[in-house]
Design goal:
The structure is a single chain. It is built from two helices and no strands. By secondary structure, it is mainly α. Helix 1 packs antiparallel against helix 2.
Length: about 55
């Protein structure tokens, strides 16, 4: 996994966190859902990349 991918996936998860918090503040369920989706997506990508790294020799 390249450093660029790592940064991209962590950024996506962070963006999701910020979006969810903004949604909570503004009482927007749409923003909250979008934020949670981005967080989960970024975290899953990170987990997949970590699993790939574990199997590399």
């Amino acid at each position: 996994m390249s450093a660029g991918q790592t940064i991209e996936h962590k950024t996506q998860a962070l963006k999701g966190l910020v979006t969810e918090r903004v949604g909570r503040t503004t009482h927007s369920s749409r923003l909250q859902r979008r934020g949670r989706t981005d967080q989960v997506s970024g975290n899953l990508k990170q987990s997949g990349d970590n699993a790939k790294d574990d199997f590399k020799l």
